[in-house]
Amino acid sequence: MPSGPYIKPQKLDQFALGYYTKLKGIKFESEVFYKKIKNRLDYIDGADLVANDNIETVILPGISRAYGMELLLRKNLGRHKYWIAYTLSKSEQKTLEEIVMKMELICQSGIIRPMIKHMTLVLIRSIT
Hints:
By secondary structure, the protein is mainly beta. It is 11% helix and 56% strand. The protein has 1 helix and 5 strands; from the N terminus they run ββββαβ. β3 and β4 form a beta hairpin.
């Protein structure tokens, strides 16, 4: 969605650190990452987005972050070739509406619970 007078552009900061090694035909790769997004847009539930001339009335600004790690073990030499990949990641998002609701919870109970939108655990293998 393009930015304009009512919609701020999204801003993303991403950091990654990786490691790679090869030993006797077996390669190992690993990476950890962190992403932080400002002005992340979400839509109001039930919003009509088709031919909507006032799209800014059905979106909610917010913040988002994602972090995780990825591992890859690969063997390409010899009779058997295989690779095994493993990913563990988590992403969270808070919209302005949720932030205001949580501020009200702070005033009432003093407790805030993190909002989890997505959690992924993936293990993939391939043997040929």
